[in-house]
Each structure stands twice: as C-alpha cells, then as structure tokens.
From TrEMBL:
Organism: Halobaculum marinum
GO cellular component: archaeal-type flagellum
Transmembrane segments: 12-37
Protein name: Flagellin
InterPro entries for the chain: Flagellin/pilin_N_arc, Flagellin_arc-type
Subcellular location: Archaeal flagellum
Pfam families the record matches: Flagellin_arch-type (PF01917)
Length: 204
C-alpha cells in the first residue's frame, strides 16, 4: 500500500524545518550579541582606565612656588630650598615616593628622599645622593603628602658635599626633575645669579 502525503502535511514539515532554522539563527545571534556586549564592556573599561591614567600623568604634577639658595661666606650656594604645591587639577601627591633627578654642573644624580634635616649636622656619608623634605603648610598634618591646593612642601637639596657633588657658583645652571608615582613630571630650572657677594640668600 502506498501512503500519500497531502499538501497540508508537506507544508507542516516545511514549517517545522523553517522554525528550527529560525530558532538556531536566534540562538547564534544571541550568543554573538553576548560576545559583542562583553567585548564592548571590556574595551570601555580599559579605555576609561587608560584615560584616567593619562589624565593623572598630565594633571598630578607639582608646581614651583619659590626656589631659594643659601649663600655661604665664600660667595657660594650650599643649600637649595624649593617650595612646591599641587599643580591646578592635581590629586594627592606623595613626595616620599617621587623620583627626583638633579642635573647640575657636575653631573646628573638620582636622589633618594630622607627626613634628615641637613642643617642639623650635615652627617652624610660618602656616596649618598639625598634630598630632604619638610612640611611648610598642610591642612591634614601630613609631612610628605600634598592633598590640598593650599598645602606647601619644602624640598631641601644639600649641594655642599656628597649629595650632589659640589657647591653652586655664580652662573651655574641646574634642572630638577620630579616624577610622581602617577608618571607626571615637573621640571624646575634655574640659573645662579652672577653676583652673590654680600648676600645670605638669593632667589633662584
């Protein structure tokens, strides 16, 4: 006996096949959409993180307020005091973790921070490359962190001995580069005046 398939049965089979294909396409599209959404979210997160890091590298800088040199009786500068504050738009800056480079007439030196007051006794050992810091004004009472636009910090560079190599004489040029933890760099340049006689201190 031959079984005849009617037009209605054929249409039903075709409809079921179309439905299966449609469901498969929907599932594939859903999976693809999920992957795209996850990728877009990841890229957005990375771009925000990169943008924040780039912003910190630009904004988390120090700003020079004043630079003063102490003049010895021999007409030389033995100590340089640099007062700094936050640059406009900067966040919290920890000077203790900053990288400081001194570029002077006798060479380039990477300096390490110390809380020693050079003016106390000058007890530095040969080979030390140091700078000290002291809080001038800090609303939060921190000795090494600038976290307010009104905060002031004094960086002290003893150039009379092993710290930076030699005293500064008239006409000497110096560049101090301060690189904060966020990667922002501040360059402070000055030239010693041509006349230091009869002065106890001079603005640089």
């Amino acid at each position: 006996m031959f079984e005849f398939i009617t037009d209605e049965e054929e249409r039903g089979q075709v409809g079921i096949g179309t439905l299966i294909v449609f469901i498969a396409m929907v599932l594939v599209a859903a999976i693809a959409a999920g992957v795209l959404i996850n990728t877009a979210g990841f890229l957005q997160s990375k771009s925000q993180e990169t943008g924040q890091q780039s912003s910190k590298q630009v904004s988390n800088r120090l700003q020079e307020v004043a630079t003063v040199g102490n003049v010895t009786t021999n007409g030389e500068i033995d100590i340089v005091n640099v007062t700094v504050t936050q640059a406009p738009g900067a966040g919290e800056i920890d000077i203790h973790n900053a990288t400081v480079t001194w570029i002077g007439p006798t060479g380039t030196y990477q300096l390490q921070s110390t809380t020693q007051n050079f003016s106390d006794n000058g007890a530095l050992t040969d080979g030390d490359k140091l700078y000290s810091y002291e809080s001038v004004k800090n609303a939060a009472g921190s000795e090494n962190v600038l976290n307010d636009a009104d905060d002031r910090l004094n960086l002290v560079f003893d150039v009379s001995g092993p710290t930076n190599g030699d005293v500064l004489n008239e006409g000497d040029e110096v560049t101090i580069k301060i690189n904060t933890m966020s990667g922002a760099t501040t360059s402070i340049r000055f030239t010693v005046p041509e006349s230091l006689g009869q002065k106890e201190a001079v603005e640089l």
